[in-house]
Amino acid sequence: MATGFSTGKALAQAMQEPAPAGSTPVNPTDPYENWNRKVFRFNETIDQWFLKPVAQTYRTFTPTIVDRGITNFFNNLQEIRNLANSLLQLKGESAVVAAGRFTYNTVFGLAGFFDVATAFDLPERPEDFGQTLGYWGAGSGPYLMLPILGPSSPRHFGGLATDLFVLPSLWDNVDSPENYYARGVQIVDVRADLIPAEGFISGDSYIFVRNAFLQRREFLINDGQPVEDPFASGDDEDLMLEDF
């Protein structure tokens, strides 16, 4: 866990350069904006020429019920992560909900293809190790745009690494190369589900994505409780996207 979090911090420190005298003050939430914008353009190029066309083809030929079922299936696998992080955050109710959702959807929802747990008044409560770090007082750190991985921060990146390589996961039971095929389908499915949200983007797309991501993370870490928004900067692109 410490290794993943330290890696994110080291990445942030490596990009820091002293500001020239008389330069414009840096946004405290995004001190590496110049670098982040370059990575953002790189990610946009990859997305425009590869990922988005694949996702559009997927949406065109995949029936809605199958598309929804695939999303539900992968979301059901995340309930183990939600359970583990709920326990680490001492959230007993959320842990019971995660266990209940996984049981209902696996048994009655055809291995999670159908989200029957929501019908039983058990809506998903997403928890990850980045939220666990925030729960125990770890600061977010500066905003980072990572190659391929997209919006992040040292806390989020450390949490992501911990969820992937340390905490228990059902993915550990999937052998290669099936593991990589399944991960590929999951990435395409997530990208396809984001296509309708692109219509909400306005103005500077970089600022819009940054604000949406940071607001969404604060929303999750505070369990949806309203708090003073530390990322509001007067930009128009303050819309929070559900999937960031």
Describe the structure.
This protein is 57% helix and 2% strand. The protein has ten helices and two strands. Residues 1-19 and 236-244 have low confidence and may be disordered. The relative contact order is 0.15. By secondary structure, the chain is mostly helical. A two-stranded antiparallel ribbon has the order 1-2. Helix 7 (129-135) crosses helix 8 (154-165).
Mean pLDDT over the residues:
85
- Secondary structure: helix percent: 55-70%
Order of helices and strands: HHHHHHHEEHHH
Low-confidence stretches: 1-19, 236-244
Shape: globular
Write the layout of secondary structure elements.
Elements: H1 2-15, H2 33-61, H3 64-77, H4 79-88, H5 92-107, H6 116-119, H7 129-135, E1 144-146, E2 150-152, H8 154-165, H9 178-194, H10 205-221
Antiparallel strand pairs: 1-2
Q: What's this entry about, in short?
A:
The chain is mostly helical and 244 residues long. Helix content is 57%, strand content 2%. It has a two-stranded antiparallel sheet.
From the structure above, extract its key features.
single chain, 244 residues, mainly alpha, two-stranded antiparallel sheet, 10 helices, 57% helix, globular, disordered N terminus, disordered C terminus
